[in-house]
Every structure is written in structure tokens, then in C-alpha cells.
Amino acid sequence: MDRGQVDRLIPAVGVVRSYERSWLRPDLTAGAALVALVIPAGMAYAEAAGLPPVTGLYATIVPLLAYAVFGPSRVLVLGPDSSLAPMIAAAILPLAVAGSERAVALAGLLALLMGLILIAGRALGLGFVTGLLSKPIRVGYLNGIALVVIATQLPKLLGFSVPGGSVWDYLGQTVQGVSDGAANGPALAIGVASLAVILVPRALRSRLPGVLLAVVGSAGATAVLGLGGSLPVVGALPKGLPAPALSGLHWADVVDLLGPAAGIALIAFADTSVLSRTLGTRRGYTVDGDQEMGALGVANAATGLLGGFPVSGSTSRTPVAVQAGAHTQLGGVVAAGLLIAFMVLAPGVTAYLPSSTLAAVVIVSAASLVDVKTLVRLARMSRTETVLLVAAFLGVAFIGVLQGVIVAVGLSLLAFVRQAWEPYRTELVSLEGVPGFHDLSRHPEGERVPGLVIARFDAPLFFANGAVFDAFVRDLVERAPGPVRCVIIAAEALTGIDTTALEDLVELDDHLDRRGISLLFAEMKGPIKDRLVRFGVGSRFGPEHFFPTVNSAVKAYRKTYDV
What we know:
The protein is of the alpha/beta class. It has helices at 3-9, 11-18, 24-48, 53-70, 85-92, 101-123, 135-158, 167-179, 185-203, 210-225, 251-283, 289-305, 318-323, 330-345, 355-367, 372-381, 383-399, 401-421, 466-479, 499-514, 526-534, 550-561, and strands at 78-79, 312-313, 425-431, 434-439, 452-457, 486-490, 518-522, 546-547.
């Protein structure tokens, strides 16, 4: 194995080899800045997923270390994420009580399965699958997830618990709890104050760490004012390091979680790869999608084995590392080291941390997922993509988080098939004084060549649109102003053909032949010609049927029929 292969398999080796001394201080600074954010965020997202807060710290330490070794991005930060928390909860809570040992084991199994799926995808070169989720659909489900997360955290912000269920159940139960006087005054006051402390620095574009200030301030106030018995608190964390927590599982659990793991893997990889590519573009290097998929898989498998839960690239913590000047993954390693020190030396610090403060952290993070600007822009640009965005939002918000992901993927595939099924198609005509042949619908003043129909169909031919292509050409022939002698297909956009569409093409040729009309192709790609031969119709469509350009095909027609 040569040096390049080693660097590709374990990017950390190449980073160590090329590391510059000037990078050390900013990497150390970035690690220190990160740890101030990952502690409250990790605990908050763990609670949002229905897990003990300490698992959020396990799910932070292990992925940071694993990605530092195998990750291709130099500054991407992996960890628990607000967009994954409701998916994790939807997968494990029907099978276990929130916060229980079984819930922790199921979350670990979910991460392990997710990691194995991503590693298998890496081996099969499936890094392209993020294309299954277009931006409108991603924006739609993220808006839906934001609504779900905020609805589930509102009761915690108010200091009471509810049975839960759908978004409407949570909202209804929250309103009922408030009307019944269940709201906890101290919890609500601290929760609202935490929101203000987090949001005000952001509004003022200040670099003050609002999340850290809210966590430290609320815990300090609870301790000083003796409110520990008056409102829900996180409690002291167990002392120790990440350890295996997969006991009590059965094969039935694997079956139950395999589908959710695949859905979460797709969402996590889509978000992580977009963030990773963006960072690479800004810093002048290229991130390989397959390599990113494998690294994310290793990180999730590792945290699943050591008491964590599914993670992805963090859009809130990565900018912190970037702004602190991080050059490499050493920043993440430093953050993981400091977090380990915190868990070993001072786990009792969280004993007075109000749960309403963690709810505030999650609510603010979820609110950042809301993207109204894209909806407004799409409404002006594309009705179809607007419908897809709204449908993905409604699917996640009102059908269910995991079901909504399936809806989102299904809509993406449906949008692709619909576009290929009903592609743009037109007749080409000549324009006086303008070379070539042009779209008749855009140039109604164009002139047809007598006896000739030139058709353009902007999609590969496959089982779903072969009949559409056939009907389109026949319709052009029927609507032609005079007798038609020849049809030329401008075939540059016909980048593929399957056997079903081939049968439609043969039927079209037979139909035209019975009417004394010849069928020619211009600008058809070589591989498509080869496929026609391989499909056994090479004798029907011989070399005389193909021309390099539409102009050459028209010249041949004019010469043959003396037009």
C-alpha cells in the first residue's frame, strides 16, 4: 500500500505528516472553545432523544476521536444534532421507556446499525445517494423536524411533563397543562431567561458564548437560591468514561431498528456531506463523498459500541471551530480530551443544571433549522419544488418523523421520475439569419422545412416515458401543415434507453414506415448507438439513419427529396 492509499484510508496520517507548528495554537484554542459548547449541547440533544444526558457526552467524545482519524474534512465537527434527536426518539421510544437502560442499549444498536450501513455504502461506492434528497425536500423535512423538536421541548421549558405522541398531542397537552396550572414558575423563569441569554448575543452579533453563559448562570442561580428541590434538574452525571452498553438486546431489536437506521443514515450523511463539501470549497480542498460516508459510518459504529447514539456533522459547532481558527481535527481531539477530564474530575457540576435550560438550548437550535426564505424564493421560482417542500414538511410534522423521511425520499424519487416521464419536448424550426434549428414554442415565427418534422425530447428513454415519446412524435406528424416525408430526432439529450422504450421506438418506426415516412437521428451518443446494436435492432437502424448534427441530417433530407 503506497502513501497515497494510506492517506486516503486514514487521513490523520497525512495530516500528521504535513502538520505545521503555526497551526498548534489555533487548534488548541478551537478545542477549548468547542468544549464549552459540546457539553450543554450533548446533554440537551440526549434528553431530546429520550436518553440520559450523559449519553450525549459519550456521543460527543467517541465521534470526535474517530473522525479525527478517519475523517476527510479538516475542521468538520461531529456530534449529537437537533435534527437527529426526534428521529432517534421515534425509533427507540416505542420499544423502551425514555431514559432507561434499554433505551440506551437500543440507541447504541441504532448507531451501530447506522454505522454499518454507511460503511457498507462506502465499500459499494454509494456516496452519490445524497442526490436522493433535493434541497427543497431537505428544507421541508428540516422545517418539520424543527416544529417537532420545539413542540416536544415546550413542556420541559415550562417545568412539567406530558404523555407525548404526535405534534398535535404535544401542543394540546402543553396547552392543557398550562390551563391546569401545571407550569413550574421557577423552571419557566429560568427557561425564559436562558432563551434570552442565548438569543441576545446572537442578535447583537456578539461572540459571547450564550449557551455556556445560560448553562453556568442557571446552574449557579439554582444552587445559590436553593431551587434544586423546586424544579426539574439534570442531576449529577455518573463518573466514568464511555463504555459498552448493549446488554439485553435481541435479534428482534435489530429487525425493528434496521429501517430507522437506514433512514437516519441517509439524513445524517446528506447533512454531513453538504457541510463537509462547503468547508472543503472554502478552504481549497476536495472531499470525497464515499470517504466521508465511510468516516461517518466508523464514527457512528464506534459511538454505538460505547454508549452513544447516532451523530452527524454539526452546523452549530463546526462554525465555532472555524471561527476559532482550527486548521485540523486536532481541535476536536483537544475538545474530546477536555470533555473526558470534565467527566472524570467534575461530573457533579450538573447536579443543579435545570432541565428547562437544556430545553431552551434545544429550542434555539431547532429554531435555527427553520428556513422561510427558501420557501418564499421557491414559491416565486418553481411551483413543483414548493409543493415538494411543503409535502415533506407536512409528512414529518404530522405523519411522523421517520415516516416523514420516507415521504421525503419517495417525493424525491417521484419528482425525478415525473421530470423524466414528462420532460420538455418541442419541435425545431429554422430562423431567418440565425444558424441552426430552434425551439418552435420560443420562436413561433420560425419556419418548418417542407415535408420534415424535427423533434427534440429532453430526457433518456425508459419504461415510463417511451410511450410519451412515441405519442409526441406521432402528434407532431399529425399536426404538420402538409404531408411528412421524414422525421429527424434531435437525440443529443437521449442519454439512455431501456428495452421497454426500445419497443416503443420500434413501434414508432413501424408506424412511420407504413406511412412512407423515414426516421433519422441526429447527434445521438455513441453508447446509445451501441446499445441499439446490442438490443438487436442494429439492422433496422443502420449507419444511414444517424447524423452528427441536425444540420447535416437536414442537408441529407433536402438532397434526397430535392427540397
